[in-house]
Known about the structure:
Elements: H1 3-7, E1 14-17, H2 28-32, E2 36-39, H3 41-60, H4 63-73, E3 89-93, H5 97-106, E4 112-116, H6 122-128, E5 131-132, H7 135-141, E6 144-147, H8 161-165, E7 172-175, H9 184-193, E8 198-201, E9 221-223, H10 234-251
Helix pairs in contact: 3-5, 3-10
Amino acid sequence: MDEEFLERAPRLKAVFYAAGSVRYFTTPELWRRGVRVSSAHAINAIPVAEYALGAVLLGLKHFWHYNRLVRTQRGFPVERPVVGAYGGKIGLLGYGTVARELRARLRAFQVEVLAHDPLLAQAEAAHEGVRLVSLEELFATSDVVSIHAKLNPDSYGLVTAPMLRRLRHAATLINTACGELINENDLVAVLSERPDLQAVLDVASPEPPVRNSPLYELPNVALTPHIAGSLGRECLRLGEAMVDEFERYVAGRPLRWEIKTQ
């Protein structure tokens, strides 16, 4: 919605976007003109958090490891380490909307939640019931690391081999955020070295991975085709949220999901 577009829409007062990020269509000119923008990004965070929760719980139970073991041994393994959610440590890399939704769902389980986010204040972390830690501690002490950081120049390729090698034995790495947050070559190298680790990737870079990518072959990688966000019936919830916003706007009531700044 650049200057040329806005010149052709001089009476535009508000945009109600039934999806996530608005960065690809908003412009300085749009904000300068005072056009109000509301997005269903917080609503889209719900299914992403639900996907991540499922992966977290399966990771704590070492689901993928035992699934492979049963298939290769053609039977149940004799020794099964004690694993599960009770007392587990969940590390959240980034503490935005999706991470907050995930943290809320984790309250039903007796787990400790760690977080690394430079923008998260200590007081707010305490209120949220998460323990702020360094990036190094997050990877070294978590049973499951779930990535929810935003992609920017500082976070591009943030997860590298030194971080991945810190992961605990049989740890699970989940990425529902953005493939570019992980150095894929480093990920492939470490997963090849460490068959005890498990990666659950709903995003990749590029997306989908190239046809000869080792991610397709590594047994300790679970790939899904960017399905964590709203799909099918879940998209109705996005539209309903924006219809509600429009009705609030017409009635002069405060908007629930308005984006104030960029």
